[in-house]
Write a structure and sequence with these properties.
single chain; 7-stranded mixed beta sheet; about 30% strand
Length: about 850
């Protein structure tokens, strides 16, 4: 134990002493830590390390003394064994030596296995920080959680705030209040992300350290939280920086987390049995927030979509997917291909564990303005035995990324049902594909990994990567609304909303924001079915006024199921339901079999059994050519919902490529099919208008302009009947336009500085308009230019010195500036200086003028 820790400090110290000259010069120059401060830290660190080593040596002496006592006891035991066995002295010593060796090996194994771990844990208690900036190093978990969820994977980051850095580190996770000496003290599991940068500690395989001493500013490790019931824990780190060792038992290098308990979220944690007496009906609405504006990094340019949503309301005995679990084949097909067929089969096979199968159409493209197309929704039911709801949808394109809820408990502890819930969703990884970007090629994960939420520190190429490890911006939102309750309720606390119904569902009170004012509902349209088959009918209402445009007014249409004319049921015969959809084909290539089933709705009154078939099969073919190098595709997915809610619309279905043609690299096979679909006839209104579009951009880039918005007729209308305006315009105010500085032309001021020969003269210009609102600033207003009047006459040589002395002009200091000639709009002020001696003629540069008060007059 002592040898391991000393060797670690020696390696760090040696690497610091033999570092490159540039780093040593940085330390000497005081770039990161002053020379005197560092020396003081080293002295303190040396004293503290010496104290720790002395304690370790005392512990070693005590252990050796105990070993010597044990050896003496074994020697005495060997002598006794010789006497009892009547053997020779050599045989007794050999047996004794063998037992001593076994004891020593066991002791060394115990020290090697747990002693090194205990040393890492005790380091924070033995040494306090050696002065200086302990806040320069931070231990962080992605998302900065206050609690940990059992089985969830987190990215642990060790960061140095510039200009600080570290050369070595250790990382360990233990139960709170334990020493790390025992195997049960260690919690969770670390997983290396970069094996060139980190490794497991030889003397403590559950801890992580750096590979070679070198300058680092950050390191990332994956840590999986322990199972439920572990309690609180500490994730501890220590840092090696040159000759100094930084430890911390609290603060920035230790993270304390406790298990997330039921008291934090009653609707997320399963409760032991639902006590509600009635059942409830819900509507699940899905809104995609994944767009180029919210997630700009590497956002795909084409084919962004959400796959068909698939889920169920279910009992506690079955969960379609969960964090920390392995994805089933149905979950894998949704995650990788967006196909819900296998997942639906898995759900239906659960039989009595399922109450409602939840299905929702796909969204193409992924983001759509809500005022143009509302989010898709589906209704489902829950009861006392099936209080949970789960679903998932693929984020496309992506390797195996999804969003969803797992075992969302809608039963409350007061024996009621959740009334309203809004959940923001972040993507999670199904653990079946190792791609790191939206459009990564297929790269199966072998062996399969567990389902985990994506984090902002997973990979440098990830579109969600964040250098600070912050939370990922949600990519979707779901709203769960309770529509009705049926049956007698026994909740211990009254609901805020009384939505208990009996018999037929009554019209519910409109829960739309009160900023939306509607006209009354129209009559229900005729049923789309003319037979006993179920159909749909619709009603509509017009939006009369929208008072707040931040809240969309979407509830202008309502649908309900209906049934056409059906003869009276004969209770003496067997009545069956409609056929359920066909299952997937049993073979992905060549001829296979698929099946469908129906159930008995009513048995004959005489108690006889139904003789009608409840299951049927048929042959199916997905790919006719099964050679290994040809193009193959999946089965067609189910048809999407009709694009129109009334009248004639379009529905589509898709399939995906499962194998490319190895010869051409292409698949010339149709992947999309579309057909017409008939919905109920649209009710006729004298004037049925669409919702207003968004306002256009302002017509100008600054100052005051105009913007417009439009709406259209949803159905043909006569001009004299519908007089509502189809366009609206309003003023838009933008920041004032910038005003650039404007100056006058150059004017010469004064005379040339010389009466003959070459000299200098002053040119000036004035500000005509000062800059405003970020306009271009004014240029220089004064400049000196060369001037030449005439060549000076030549003088006798002996008289030049006297002439130069006579021409010399010596000037006094400048006088103060005189008052400005104007209070605003641009004026002038002057100052002068007198020549010495005063009788020197033609002395230039005796006055100077400048502009003043150039701000505009109010």
């Amino acid at each position: 134990m002592f040898l391991t820790f000393s060797l670690f400090l020696f390696c760090v110290s040696s690497a610091a002493q033999h570092g490159d000259q540039k780093e040593m010069e940085e330390v000497r120059s005081g770039e990161t830590i002053g020379r005197q401060t560092e020396s003081a830290k080293e002295v303190l660190g040396s004293e503290e390390r010496g104290a720790m080593m002395r304690k370790q040596m005392e512990g070693e002496e005590e252990r050796k003394a105990m070993m010597m006592k044990e050896v003496e006891r074994l020697e005495e035991r060997g002598v006794v064994m010789e006497k009892e066995m009547g053997g020779s002295e050599g045989e007794g010593k050999a047996m004794m030596a063998k037992e001593v060796e076994e004891r020593r090996e066991l002791e060394e194994a115990r020290v090697s296995r747990h002693g090194g771990c205990a040393q890492l844990v005790r380091a924070g208690s033995v040494l306090e920080p050696s002065g200086g900036r302990t806040d320069a190093f931070h231990l962080r978990l992605d998302g900065a959680p206050e609690y940990y969820r059992p089985g969830h994977a987190y990215t642990v980051s060790l960061l140095a705030m510039p200009p600080a850095y570290f050369r070595g580190f250790n990382l360990i996770a233990v139960k709170e209040g334990t020493t790390g000496e025992h195997e049960e003290d260690h919690v969770g599991e670390f997983k290396l992300i970069d094996r060139q940068d980190s490794q497991f500690v030889h003397s403590c395989p559950v801890a992580v350290s750096g590979t070679t001493p070198r300058r680092r500013t950050r390191v990332h490790i994956t840590w999986t939280a322990p199972s439920a019931g572990t309690g609180c824990l500490n994730i501890k780190a220590n840092i090696a920086q040159k000759k100094m060792m930084w430890f911390s038992d609290s603060g920035s290098l230790t993270k304390t987390l406790c298990e997330k308990g039921n008291e934090d979220d009653d609707t997320k944690q399963p409760i032991p049995g639902c006590c509600a007496c009635d059942s409830a009906k819900y509507r699940l609405t899905f809104y995609g927030n994944w767009s180029e504006s919210t997630h700009p990094r590497d956002y795909p340019k084409l084919a962004t979509h959400w796959s068909a949503l698939i889920g169920a309301s279910h009992s506690a005995n079955y969960v379609p997917w969960e964090y920390g679990g392995l994805a089933s084949d149905g979950v894998r097909r949704v995650a990788e291909w967006g196909s819900p067929i296998a997942m639906e089969e898995e759900i239906r096979r659960q039989g009595p564990e399922i109450l409602t199968v939840i299905k929702m159409k796909s969204l193409w493209p992924a983001w759509q303005p809500r005022h143009i197309r509302p989010g898709p929704s589906a209704e489902f039911s829950v009861d006392r035995d099936h209080p949970f709801m789960s679903f998932l949808s693929m984020l496309g394109p992506s390797p195996d990324w999804n969003v969803g809820l797992s075992a969302e408990n809608l039963c409350t502890p007061d024996c009621s049902w959740v009334q309203h819930s809004v959940q923001d969703l972040i993507p999670w990884d199904a653990g079946t594909d190792s791609g790191t970007t939206y459009e990564s090629p297929n790269l199966p994960t072998i062996p399969q990994e567990r389902i985990r939420p994506l984090t902002s520190l997973d990979h440098l190429d990830s579109p969600f990567y964040d250098t600070e490890g912050g939370p990922i911006t949600p990519v979707a939102r779901v709203i769960i609304e309770r529509l009705a309750r049926k049956g007698e309720h026994c909740n211990t606390r009254p609901d805020d909303v009384d939505d208990v119904v009996s018999g037929e569902d009554e019209d519910e009170e409109d829960q739309t924001f009160r900023t939306c004012v509607y006209e009354p509902w129209s009559q229900w349209s005729a049923c789309s079915s003319r037979t006993c088959d179920p159909g749909k009918q619709m009603r509509q209402r017009r939006l009369r006024a929208q008072l707040d445009f931040s809240h969309p007014c979407l509830h202008t249409q309502d649908m309900q199921t209906c049934q056409g004319h059906c003869p009276a049921q004969d209770n003496s015969v067997c009545t069956l339901s409609e056929w359920l959809p066909w299952s997937a084909c049993s073979e992905m290539c060549g001829q296979g079999v698929r099946r469908r089933e129906r159930y008995v709705k009513h048995y004959p009154d005489d108690g006889s059994m139904c003789k009608l078939e409840t299951e049927e099969t048929e042959s199916c073919t997905v790919n006719t050519d099964c050679s290994p190098d040809t193009c193959r595709v999946s089965e067609w997915l189910t048809w999407s919902e009709c694009s129109e809610t009334c009248g004639i619309g379009i529905r589509r279905r898709v399939r995906t490529i499962t194998q490319m043609d190895s010869g051409t690299g292409n698949c010339l096979i149709a992947l999309v099919q579309m057909e017409k679909c008939m919905m109920p006839n649209c009710p006729k209104f004298p004037c049925m208008l669409s919702i207003w579009t968004e306002w256009t951009s302002c017509s100008v880039t600054c100052a005051i302009g105009m913007r417009t918005r439009r709406r259209t007729f949803k159905q043909p209308a006569e001009a004299d009947v519908c007089t509502e305006p189809l366009t609206e315009a309003e003023k838009c105010m933008l920041p004032e336009c910038p005003i650039d500085c404007q100056v006058s032309e150059w004017l010469k001021e004064g005379r040339c500085s010389r009466s003959c020969g070459r000299g200098r003269e002053l040119w000036v210009r004035h500000v005509l308009r000062a800059p405003h609102f970020g306009g271009t600033s004014c240029p220089t207003l004064r400049e000196s230019r060369p001037c030449r009047i005439s060549r000076c006459p030549r003088r006798e040589k002996h008289g030049r010195r006297r002439e130069r002395a006579e021409r010399a002009c010596f000037l006094a200091r400048w006088s103060p500036w005189r008052p400005c000639s104007a209070a605003c709009g641009g004026g002038q002020q002057q100052r002068v200086r007198r020549p010495r001696p005063r009788h020197v003629p033609n002395c230039s540069g005796t006055s100077e003028t400048r502009t003043c008060n150039d701000h505009p007059c109010d």
